[in-house]
Design a protein that fits this description.
By secondary structure, this protein is of the alpha+beta class. The chain has helices at 49-56, 95-102, 107-110, 118-127, 212-216, 218-228, and strands at residues 2-6, 11-16, 20-26, 33-39, 66-68, 74-81, 140-142, 146-148, 154-156, 166-171, 175-180, 197-203. A hairpin with a 5-residue loop joins β5 and β6.
Length: 232
């Protein structure tokens, strides 16, 4: 369908049709890609992080997991993954935290690349489709790892994904996606140096009956069945 390179700190959006796939590749070590997902036909239905994690008994995503909507349907399935851990818990870097952490690096003064928080980038993208601040949901932070220690504190894993790392989504519904390549909010690096990410999309068809994600858990099968029912 198309391919694209998203520079570090930039943002982008697209409507992915049911039966299409999106391959995301970390072109720089330590890249982060924050993504939010909405049902393209009815945007009040959107990715639900608590339900997805609870139903699949997990605190991170990898191959086999599905990204469920708040209606119990699979928006997308993770069909391939060379990383093994993608963060659903760490939220987004906002403008205030970005300035406190990195200082103000405007293009006017520094002639630099995009210097924008993940939150602002995603608000710009979803605004193109009539959505607003109240519609911004918890993202999936692909290529980033956040674990929880014995005291219940988040622990960020620096350089979790080496350059060339790949993860692939198949869309089980017509899905609006918006993404940002700004740094993860828990990244301890004192420098604003987000990595770029490559994207490639193609049509592969809906999930077959013997699909790996469909068989991964009973909850995954039910979510994918619920999505299939919209397209009978």
């Amino acid at each position: 369908m198309w391919s694209e390179i998203v520079p570090g700190g930039c943002h982008w959006s697209y409507v992915m049709p049911r039966g299409s796939r999106l391959r995301m590749v970390a072109l720089d070590a330590g890249a982060n890609l924050s993504m939010v997902l909405y049902h393209a036909r009815e945007k009040l239905e959107r990715y639900n992080m608590p339900d997805s994690l609870k139903a699949q008994h997990t605190a991170h995503y990898t191959r086999g997991h599905v990204l469920m909507s708040d209606m119990g349907r699979s928006l997308a399935s993770i069909t391939a993954d060379t990383v093994g851990w993608h963060d659903p818990l760490g939220a987004l870097l906002d403008h205030e935290r970005m300035l406190a952490k990195y200082g103000d690096h405007s293009f006017h003064d520094y002639r630099n690349g995009m210097f924008r928080s993940g939150k602002d980038g995603l608000l710009i993208e979803i605004g193109k489709y009539g959505l607003s601040r109240r519609d911004l949901i918890a993202p999936v932070n692909f290529f980033s790892k956040v674990a929880v220690d014995a005291e219940g504190r988040f622990q960020f894993a620096p350089d979790h994904a080496p350059a060339g790392s790949m993860v692939e989504l198949r869309f089980d519904m017509d899905t609006l996606i918006a993404l940002s390549t700004a740094p993860h909010p828990l990244n301890p690096s004192p420098s604003y140096a987000p990595g770029k990410v490559g994207l490639a999309a193609w049509k592969s068809g809906p999930a077959p009956a013997d699909d790996y994600c469909r068989a991964f858990r009973g909850e995954c099968a039910r979510a994918m069945h619920n999505a299939d029912m919209l397209y009978l």
